[in-house]
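Q: Predict the assembly, please.
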Amino acid sequence: MAEELRRVETPLGPIDYLLTIKNVKNINLRIRADGRAVVSAPRRASKAGIDRFVRSRAEWVLAHQRRQEERSPLVPPEREAALAALTAALERMYPLVEPLGVKRPVLKVRFMTSRWGSCHYTKGIVTLNTALAAAEEELRDYVALHELVHFLHPDHGEGFHAAMDALMPDWQTRRRALRRYALERPPT
Ligand SMILES: [Zn+2]
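A: Predicted assembly structure:
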């Protein structure tokens, strides 16, 4: 089994791919989780033929790589940096709910794989995901406000939606934008 890193020029731009020659019947192209295009090909296939095969699928390869880039996981910054960024988000959003009687919560930050944030409304604690600190400011603000509004509406019912609509009219757009990141579930 021989491996070779190759590059083909295509009308859409160059494509680098890792070629493996092995006992397979057909040329096989896939995109690895890290975005690398990998091709396995039988011994009888010519390099020119393999390049041509990859070139013919350039659109598919590049579209796939783009999608994976868009969904790449957010890498949390160092804890201190995450705490600073998330504290700032909570400070920006808190004045929106303070007039509604929400007491200033205690902020906790930690890395979570399944949620962006959570609210312990009986204990006055908001927990935000450290990975969120790597997202855009408007997305950090959305999650912070989402959790703060849970002090008024613990569930995601009509009252919750109405409060979010009033305080952050584009919150649904921000929630959708969060989906391009690797934590797939919306905050709860
Ligand atoms: Zn929620």
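The helical segments are 47-56, 58-70, 79-97, 137-149, 158-167, 171-178. The chain has two domains: 2-70, 79-178.
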